[in-house]
Amino acid sequence: MPENRQPGDGQPSEIQKTYSGQSEKHEVAVLGGGSFGTAMAKVLTENGHRVHFWMRDEAQARELSEKGTNSRYMPGVTLSGDLCPTTDFADAVAQVDTVFVAIPSKAFRDVIRSHAGAFRPGQIVVSLTKGIERDGFKLMSEILQEEIPKTRIGVLSGPNLAAEIVNRELTATVIAAKVPEVRRTVQALLGCEYFRVYANVDVYGVELAGALKNIYAIVSGMASALELGENARAMLMTRSLAEMSRFAVSLGANPMTFMGLAGIGDLVVTCTSAKSRNYRVGYAVGRGDRLEDAVAELGQVAEGIHTLLLVKEKAEEVGIYMPLVRGLYDILYGGASIKAVISSLMTAVQNSDVEFILPRTLTGQA
Ligand SMILES: NC(=O)C1=CN([C@@H]2O[C@H](COP(=O)(O)OP(=O)(O)OC[C@H]3O[C@@H](n4cnc5c(N)ncnc54)[C@H](O)[C@@H]3O)[C@@H](O)[C@H]2O)C=CC1
Ligand SMILES: O=C(CO)COP(=O)(O)O
């Protein structure tokens, strides 16, 4: 932009253009009838779009059709507008230009693969899922690329607690896509007075950030249960950011993505809020519950528990130092005491604060 021009002068920005397109009604699909699928379906219907909302459970689809509620995953919330709940996948996808996928990572490939024929070339398909596939350490956009390569793919990620979005609490997110048309379309479909959509091209970084932060939300929930204090919370969140960006950058992500909503933004919300399921699992374990009991009590997906296993394996394979991942793994899966892990983390070699400025050393003589 020329020096003396202000944002908003002259040519409309990408976002201003987006808002001007919002009055147009579109047919969109949301796949997955859990809490986040419900939250996104609500934003989309409130923005005036017809939403084909696919879920596998007949009774849930019937309840949404008859009452506009999803009492299992989003009690107390009513959806209105042009909502078409269905269990017919092909029917949901056939009629739309844009599809949002909110299926947990464990089932993501199966669902897409078994309905791959339903997608049309050129259709926009956006993953809302924050997880990693075990085989091959694949992210959801990579699964989409493999299973439905003729579609145009995007990833939506950011500090987006479903429980707040359904109450129209002010929220921002990130659409990451290589193709500008995908970014613009998603901004136009979702953007409104309470939901802002920022854009990024670093699909890998945005997606990996969303998956990784779930691990650190578990750590942070645990620290809260143990009442470690506010200094400890700040230390943990900052070192989490250092660790997740070290790992992601080594795999090809752009470090600057971690300064944005999908990086630090999502890390902050999930590490500080009891509305985060990952945080809640960590809190329960921190106060002495067994992991299995904490997960059973939650009754919803906490992706970080599986992501932890995959990231720990991957970090060892590629030789990335991830002490928080290692410590959490030892607690959740290795029977280590939380106290012993904290002590070993606190007495480890002291090293560089921001390693993109001052590289880490093996001896700690930074
Ligand atoms: N809830 C939230 O605040 C947010 C969640 N996400 C991500 O969205 C993804 C989905 O999570 P939630 O909706 O929150 O989970 P949830 O636990 O609330 O619901 C999961 C949904 O997936 C469905 N499902 C599971 N396996 C399936 C299969 N094989 N076929 C069809 N449907 C299946 C379940 O029936 C359920 O409707 C996760 O990756 C999560 O990290 C992302 C941002 C915010
Ligand atoms: O990703 C989320 C908020 O951005 C939701 O986090 P949880 O899955 O921990 O609830």
Q: How much helicity do the residues have? A: 40-55%
- Structural domain tally: 2
Known CATH architecture of the largest domain:
3-Layer(aba) Sandwich
Q: What structural category do the secondary elements indicate?
A: alpha/beta
Describe the structure.
With 366 residues, the protein is an alpha/beta fold. It folds into 2 domains: 188 residues, NAD(P)-binding Rossmann-like Domain (Rossmann fold); 138 residues, N-(1-d-carboxylethyl)-l-norvaline Dehydrogenase, domain 2. The chain is built from 16 helices and 10 strands. The strands form 2 sheets. An 8-stranded mixed β-sheet has the order 3-2-1-4-5-8-9-10, with helices on both faces. Strands 6-7 form a two-stranded antiparallel ribbon. The longest helix is centred in the middle third of the chain and has 23 residues. Bound molecules: 1,4-dihydronicotinamide adenine dinucleotide and 1,3-dihydroxyacetonephosphate. The site of 1,4-dihydronicotinamide adenine dinucleotide (NAI) has 27 residues, from helix 2 and helix 5.
